[in-house]
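in:
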C-alpha cells in the first residue's frame, strides 16, 4: 500500500511519531524525501541517505542529536538509576 504524506516535516514530532507507529502496526513502510537533512523527523527513519549531486551516490546520514533532547535523556537515565541532581542517592 502506498500512502503519500506531504509536508511531514511541518508536523509536530509527537504527531509524526504516531503516524509512523500506526503505519508500522499496519505493515505500511514509510518512504520520505526531505530537503533538510537536519530535520528531527529523520530520527524516525531506520535508513537515511543523501544523494550526492556530483557522484550520484548514496551517502548515509546520521541525524543531529538535539542538545535539549540529550539533556532530557540524560536526566531520565539518572532518575532511572536512582541518581538525584547528578549525584548518587544515599540509601
Amino acid at each position: 500500500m502506498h500512502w503519500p504524506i506531504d509536508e511531514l516535516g511541518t508536523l509536530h514530532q509527537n504527531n509524526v511519531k504516531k503516524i509512523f507507529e500506526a503505519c508500522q502496526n499496519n505493515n505500511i513502510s514509510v518512504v520520505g524525501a526531505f530537503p533538510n537533512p537536519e530535520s528531527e523527523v529523520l530520527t524516525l527513519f531506520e535508513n537515511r541517505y543523501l544523494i550526492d549531486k556530483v557522484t550520484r551516490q548514496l551517502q548515509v546520514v546520521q541525524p543531529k542529536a538535539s542538545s535539549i533532547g540529550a539533556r532530557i535523556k540524560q536526566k531520565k537515565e539518572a532518575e532511572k538509576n536512582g541518581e538525584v541532581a547528578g549525584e548518587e542517592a544515599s540509601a
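note: The chain has a mean pLDDT of 77.
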